[in-house]
């Protein structure tokens, strides 16, 4: 049975907004996925952490979040957030994402990232965000994440020493980006 409230759908996954009611399923998957996420990210692991996190993605003006769901069942496979959205001459946002262990390695996030890129660059009358640029900052040792953005058509733009405070220390990050002009039909093909 297909979940009916997807913002975007691919062959295997759909994107939908976060809901406060998703807390129990989301945090259960976070616990099951600690080995996959550490030391790269630390998504909210309790309902007390999840609720303000989800509320900021639901109500925020400078960030938006998408749950990546297996299309047929609606099961949450992970999340992709667009953070630090700046409008005007910049029209840019920074990606944050994580797959859950039960969905990792199945190609679902390759499809999901293509859907997020398409949604981010789509016109407002198509329900999109009308952004011009998406960035992803990735620790050099995170091979899976680097492969994901590379496969989605992002280009490496540089290296930032001590860029983000992650897992108790300032970590180096590679800077990757894609623009609306770079995405085009080829990005849609990569999505699914």
Structure description:
The chain has 192 residues and is an alpha+beta fold. The protein has one domain: 3-Layer(aba) Sandwich (Aminopeptidase), CATH 3.40.630.30. The chain is built from six helices and eight strands, in the order ββαααβββαβαββα. An eight-stranded mixed sheet has the order 1-2-3-4-5-6-8-7, sandwiched between helices. Helix 1 (23-32) crosses helix 3 and helix 4 packs antiparallel against helix 6. The longest helix is centred in the middle third of the chain and has 14 residues, at 108-121. The two termini are 20 Å apart.
What descriptors fit this protein?
single chain; 192 residues; alpha+beta; Aminopeptidase; 6 helices; disordered C terminus
> What general outline do the C-alpha atoms trace?
globular
Helix share bin: 25-40%
Order of helices and strands: EEHHHEEEHEHEEH
CATH topology call: Aminopeptidase
CATH class assignment? Alpha Beta
The named CATH superfamily: Gcn5-related N-acetyltransferase (GNAT)
In the CATH hierarchy, the architecture is 3-Layer(aba) Sandwich
């Amino acid at each position: 049975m297909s979940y009916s409230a997807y913002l975007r759908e691919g062959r295997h996954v759909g994107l939908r907004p976060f809901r406060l009611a998703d807390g129990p399923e989301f945090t259960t998957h976070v616990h099951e996925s600690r080995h996959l996420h550490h030391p790269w990210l630390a998504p909210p692991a309790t309902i007390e952490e999840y609720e303000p996190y989800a509320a900021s993605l639901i109500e925020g003006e400078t960030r938006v979040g998408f749950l990546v769901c297996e299309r047929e069942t609606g099961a949450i496979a992970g999340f992709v957030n667009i953070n630090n959205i700046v409008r005007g001459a910049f029209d840019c946002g920074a990606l944050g994402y994580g797959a859950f262990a039960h969905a990792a390695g199945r190609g679902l996030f390759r499809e999901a990232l293509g859907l997020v890129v398409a949604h981010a660059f789509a016109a407002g009358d198509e329900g999109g965000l009308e952004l011009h640029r998406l960035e992803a900052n990735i620790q050099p040792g995170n091979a899976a994440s680097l492969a994901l953005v590379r496969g989605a058509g992002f280009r490496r733009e540089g290296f930032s020493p001590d860029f983000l405070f992650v897992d108790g220390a300032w970590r180096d990050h590679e800077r990757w980006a894609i623009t609306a002009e770079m995405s085009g039909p080829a990005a849609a093909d990569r999505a699914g």
